[in-house]
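The protein record passed on for reference:
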Amino acid sequence: MRYDALFLITAASSGVAGLLDVRTSIQRRAEVIPAPIVVSPSQYFDGVDGSWSTFNIRVGTPAQSVRVIASTNSPQTNVVQPAGCATAVLPKGLPVNCAASRGGTFNLNQSSTWIDQGWYSLNNKDTHYGFEANLGYNFNLDYGLDTLGLDYQAGVNAPTLNNQTVAAYNLPSPLYLGLFGLGTQPVLYETFGNYSAPSFFQTLRTQKLIPSLSWSYTAGASYRLSAGQYAQLIFGGYDTSRYQSNDVQFQLSADVTRDIVVGVQSIIYSGSSTIALLPTPIYAFIESTDPNIWLPLESCLLFEQAFGLTWDNSTSKYLMNDTLYTSNLALNPTVTFRLAVSTTGGSAASIVLPFSAFALKAAYPFVTNSTYYFPLRRAANSTQYTLGRTFLQEAYLTVDYDRGNFSVSQCTWVQGAASKIGTILSPSYKNSSNGTTGSTTTSDSASRTPVGGIVGGIVGAGAVVLLGGLAYWFWRRKQQKKTSEPEEIPSPDDVALGEFYQPDKIPWTEQDEADSMYKKAMSMHSHNVPDGELGVDGNEIHQLSADTRPTEVMDTDSRVRYELDGDMGFGVASPVSAMLMVPGTLGTPVSPMSTLRHGDSVGSVGSEAGLLAAGRARGRQADAESSRQSSRSRSPMRATSGPAEDQLRL
């Protein structure tokens, strides 16, 4: 009878242990997902072609801090060298606090981790292809690999990456401030052997520091709220407190140099009258590198009429004197851009810009004397149609490269509004149906299979079985006491093993992945970056060989070339971001966790059985002496590793 109870207890405890192992197995199926990285603004408004909210980055070892503009289309980070504030670069005189006005400078000679790649052109000026080639940008930079980090010091939202492409330059135009590139493509050099590092953005995702290959950005506005609104940059997420959502979903273009393209159906001026400023709908590229809005000539002429602008041929700008600025500010007209997937029909998003968004303050060396200007440029052809940084003061842009789409929304302005950060999950994660509209926030509880509930329920069932077994044992013991017939002493070999409780295997079930709220792009970028020199598939950013470049001021190393190893590692030198847990698949790396281990101890039959038998023998009246002799010759039974014990292991 005691054997029955012992077997039941052992079976139930082993069943519970098995269930705990099931829980551990399910947890191992879970996958660690990083939280979005919210990049802190520098809390400065910089620039000589307007007042722009910047971000601080740390370059080199030891780190040198510089403030830069976020560039939505640059494949690299560009920084100003100390020679950028030399008289050879600015022969008409240096601006007051020149280095500070340029966001600070980076001295590559003082960085122990700088690996020089040589001087190259920003793009291919001969084919007019590459970063900002269509807008006429062309100058030389000293390219290299170095440590690059976000914010003023390393932290959860400020990772530091090694071996990132950094290009240093001197000239004040067209880029007075440096750039922090958000592009996905690596820089490719035409000189064989130079290493092409993945972009900072791509490396964040490759190292699983962000939940998806996506970002959200708005340029900020110095004229909004009580003291201006800073720019916002989020990797892998969005902030619903900063924009008003809409239902328009755009597809990324196959041209990686101009991929964020929208159909501009109309541009409407609203002031003392209403004027249509765009005679014919166009397709335009949205980007933050250039501050201007580039439109067809006929559209620019209508802007001139509406705002009273005059084109200045000497500067190729629309300059505004104080009188014109004051009259427009008093009227405070607005300009509404109606954007859609195509130039006709379909759902549309309206982005409204007040006059203050166009009233930019220019200073030396951008102009000789400080004045306001209107950031409108006459496009030579359709490849120059661009909605630049001015537009992104009032527009919130979210781009999801995993799904190949993006959204453009109207910014909202609420003093002291608390951030509401949402996560964009990569399609590689299960149940990831969110994307670029940011209408809902993916929560941890909503996307995690209720492991505790499943296992808890089964453990409860195991407890019921255990209690039932104990009740059966007590009932059987009571029945045995009613029997007058003496029992023979049981032997371990005679014990009949019942059919022990075996918990059924718990099938792993997952929710079918919800239909994505975003369509797959017809043409996607290649994100797999092999080691060493990358192959050319027509979608990379090419850098021109220094042999054909125009001479850069202070360039004394025009023929230096370096052959670099192609197997450099890309490490992280900062704390990683906070983690979220949602179900994944088998084989997915998981975070370290404690695992309950069960020992090899088993239930066994011990000498108490012999003592029980001896007690029963003393109750017999016949042949007492014979019983005592038999008792002296009997050895107590001991547990062994024989068949009986083996059967007790589950």
